Amino acid sequence: MESLRDVRRVMEREAKKGSCPLMFEKIEFDGTPFQFILSEEKLDEVLAYLLRLKSFRQYAEKTVINNVYMDLDMLCRKPQFKRTHSVMEREGIYARVQRYKKKLNPDYENGLCLETVRCIFTLSEGEAEKCRMTHEGQETYAFIMSNKYILGLFTYCEAARKSAVLDGVEYGHLTEREQKIALLDGVGDVLFQALLLDDVEYGNGRLCANLHTIYCLNKK
């Protein structure tokens, strides 16, 4: 894995080429960051939602290409993170996650969890004005970023989640069981992960997006 210093250098070069210089600030656990998945049917529904497939294809607008998804090789050994540009690519990821699911054989009796953390990004006021535009009569923003820049933002989000508690992220409002997951205590394999940049909130110079992770929890 590249160091964050190397990632930052790549992002700086991409910003000089024209990528919007959106910067990662921090992650947050909101009031309900954990959802326990108690059946295979529910897991498949969550995967379809994250990948904007099946009944959730209606949510797949043009900005779905900005999302970063965990993918696997054919043997389900080495995860990689990538953007997709078609339904077929997302369906391919879904199929490989299904194979990985069978390999992990998760315990659905309180043994699988979807975590959603808020990733906060910032943009200076001057740069934000450059991104302002009018679309169909409404004022909005367009954050144009290269593939390398978006993957760089994801790398920051992933690193921040791994060190969340050490970095001082607040989690005292969570239940005892949820606090253990926040500490990555009893957390096993990551079944799937996605940063959804097609569903963001922007205001006061801050952009918020969700990082979703499906954990296999270790047996007690």
What would you report as the Rg, rounded to the nearest angstrom? Answer: 18 Å
**Helix content estimate:** 25-40%
Low-confidence stretches: none
User: How do the helices and strands follow one another from N- to C-terminus?
Assistant: HEEHEEHEHEEHHEE
Q: Report the average pLDDT across residues.
A: 91
Q: How many individual helices?
A: 6
Q: Characterize the biggest β-sheet.
A: 7 strands, antiparallel
Strand content: 25-35%
Cα(first) to Cα(last) distance is: 31 Å
Structural class: alpha+beta
Count of individual beta strands: 9
Shape: globular
Keywords:
seven-stranded antiparallel sheet; two-stranded antiparallel sheet; alpha+beta; globular; 29% strand
Describe it for me?
- With 220 residues, the protein is α+β, with helices and mostly antiparallel strands.
- The protein is 33% helix and 29% strand.
- It is built from 6 helices and 9 strands.
- It has helices at residues 4-16, 40-50, 87-104, 125-131, 147-162, 176-182; strands at 23-28, 34-36, 68-71, 80-82, 112-122, 132-135, 138-141, 187-203, 206-217.
- Strands 1, 2, 3, 4, 5, 8 and 9 form a 7-stranded antiparallel sheet that branches.
- Strand 8 (187-203) and strand 9 form a beta hairpin.
- The protein is globular and about 50 Å long.
- The mean pLDDT is 91.
